[in-house]
Structures are given as structure tokens and as C-alpha cells.
Specification:
Number of strands: 11
Helix content: 25-40%
Radius of gyration: 18 Å
Structural class: alpha+beta
CATH topology of the largest domain: Aminopeptidase
Strand order of the largest sheet: 1-2-3-4-11-5-10-9-8-7-6
Number of helices: 8
């Protein structure tokens, strides 16, 4: 299951960042973003000033040649962006060797967790309402710990908000938006991502309620599998484990110094 899930999640563009950026460029051809295939995976550039952006899914079809790294440099070099390279444990060993040869170092880890898409009992805190609608500001502000989001932060949220495979749920408390989260649904796979809660509304069950609601949306949409990703020991991992998710695999994030 984990190996099959890795290919579904990392190599198929629908529902992912590559699809979101491609869709945005179709409507805004001058936008400073880009996406392109690389080996068995994808490269994404979410614009200047971004702390993320890079490639994933590389090496799942076998040995990785130097041409892959040449294409990586050709894509990100002119954009003056230091990309992340996410390495799945099922990638060919030549990927890790090549990363070392090209000056990349392991920086941190990302957990990928999964569970079957089944309906869960909602658990919504008193005074909270969750509904499906477009949202940019509240999610960006949640990631900024309540501060005013930058223009780039807002651009990223607009890109995912407009993605055809992405659906957004917003949590309201006493009539005010206090959090939100997205779920990308494609080909029977649902990926819950992009969830944030404003600082004053944290540790009150809202993050958990948003995850449950997105899982139920996935089940109602006919998905067979739900995936969440997060940092080891983070709030997303803790909530996912409580809801019956299992660890599928851990990716290592590489970057140049």
C-alpha cells in the first residue's frame, strides 16, 4: 500500500501544486509562477520570495541521471530560487547519491499519513460553524500567526483556492472566520492540506473539526483514500493519529546550503 500510495500522491498531477499552478497560469499567463514535469515527478515554483517550491516524486521509475539535476538547475536557476527536493523512501538510491554530488543536504522530514475514506462523526465545538466556500485571507493570516499576510502569501492561497480539484472549508466562530483548510480530490484520492487557525482560536478543537469535515467531504465524493502530510510531532500529525491515520512513509527534504 505505501509504495502504491507514493506513486498516486507524488507522480500524478491532478489535485497537486503542479495542477494548481498550471490552472493559474492558464488564466494569468504573466504570473511569476511555473510548473514542469521532472523524471517521474514534478517541479513547482510558487513565485519570488517563497520559502517553499521544489520537486517531488523523482526517482520512482528507477535510476536518476545527471540530466535530472541539469533540468532542475535550468528550471530554478534563472528564478534565483533554492529548491526543496523531497525524497520518498521508495526512490532509487541514485537520487540521494546525486543530491550529495550536487551539494544538497538533508534538512528536515515530512510525514505522509493515510487512512481509508470513511465517514466520521462530526465533532464541532460550540459556537463554531463550518461551511464550504472560497477563502484566502483567513488561511493566509492563520499561517502568518495572525499577522497581515504578504502579497506572496495571498498569491499562494489564491492559486490553491482556484484549483479545480481543491475544495475549501472555513470555520466560523460567532460569525467570524477563524480558520480554514483545503482538500484536493482527484482519481479517488483526497489530500487534506493548507489548514490554519487564527492564534486566538487555537487549541479549541477547530483544527480537528476541519480535518473531520474534509474527510467526510472526501468520503461523500467517492474517494477510497485520504492523505495528510505534516511535520513529525506537529498538530496535523497529532490530530491525524487520533483520527485513525497510519504513517505511510516519511520523506526527507533536501536543500543546498
Amino acid at each position: 500500500m505505501p509504495r502504491t500510495l507514493a506513486r498516486r500522491l507524488l507522480c500524478t498531477p491532478p489535485g497537486g501544486a503542479a495542477e494548481a499552478i498550471g490552472g493559474w497560469l492558464a488564466r494569468h499567463p504573466d504570473a511569476p509562477v511555473a510548473a514542469a514535469p521532472l523524471d517521474s515527478g514534478w517541479m513547482v515554483y510558487p513565485g519570488p520570495g517563497s520559502a517553499w517550491g521544489g520537486c517531488s516524486g523523482v526517482g520512482l521509475d528507477g535510476s536518476v541521471s545527471d540530466d535530472v539535476f541539469a533540468r532542475l538547475d535550468a528550471f530554478f536557476g534563472p528564478r534565483a530560487h533554492a529548491p526543496m527536493v523531497l525524497v520518498c523512501p521508495y526512490a532509487h538510491a541514485s537520487l540521494v547519491d546525486g543530491l550529495a554530488d550536487h551539494g544538497f543536504h538533508a534538512r528536515r522530514f515530512r510525514q505522509t499519513m493515510w487512512r481509508p475514506a470513511t465517514t466520521l462523526e462530526p465533532c464541532i465545538p460550540d459556537g463554531v460553524l463550518i461551511r464550504e466556500e472560497h477563502a484566502v485571507e483567513v488561511i493566509a493570516r492563520g499561517f502568518a500567526d495572525g499577522a497581515d499576510p504578504t502579497e506572496h502569501d495571498l498569491l499562494v492561497e489564491r492559486i490553491f483556492d482556484a484549483s479545480p480539484s481543491s475544495r475549501t472549508l472555513v470555520a466560523y466562530r460567532d460569525g467570524r472566520a477563524v480558520g480554514g483548510g483545503r482538500v484536493a480530490i482527484a482519481d479517488g484520492l483526497a489530500v487534506c492540506f493548507g489548514a490554519s487557525v487564527l492564534p486566538e482560536a487555537r487549541r479549541q478543537g477547530i483544527h480537528d473539526a476541519l480535518l473531520r469535515a474534509r474527510m467526510n467531504l472526501a468520503a461523500a465524493s467517492g474517494c477510497d483514500t485520504v492523505v495528510v502530510e505534516g511535520s513529525p510531532g506537529g498538530a496535523t500529525e497529532r490530530n491525524a493519529l487520533r483520527l485513525g491515520f497510519s504513517l505511510a512513509f516519511t520523506q526527507v527534504i533536501f536543500r543546498r546550503p
